[in-house]
Amino acid sequence: LGIAQNRSFVCCRIYMDYNATTPVDPEVVRVVTDALTEAWGNPSSNYLPGMRLSKIDVWQTSNMSHLKA
């Protein structure tokens, strides 16, 4: 029998190319989508959308700093 015909060998799918396309956590998709559609502006500016981004940037920096290698 060929490998494809041997049902006991073909039991599950194993994806081994995470370097090319890695599944994205749904929460990450939500946050990035919100950022791209709602959080636009220049965080260095003094108008309201920019000031909101400045606060997000400070939060992000403090919450992600532990991930730096």
UniProtKB/TrEMBL annotation:
The keyword DNA repair does not apply. Its cofactor is pyridoxal 5'-phosphate. It comes from the Eukaryota. The keyword Membrane does not apply. Keywords: Cytoplasm, Transferase. SUPFAM superfamilies: PLP-dependent transferases. InterPro entries: PyrdxlP-dep_Trfase, PyrdxlP-dep_Trfase_major. One of its GO terms (molecular function) is transferase activity. Homodimer. This is Uncharacterized protein.
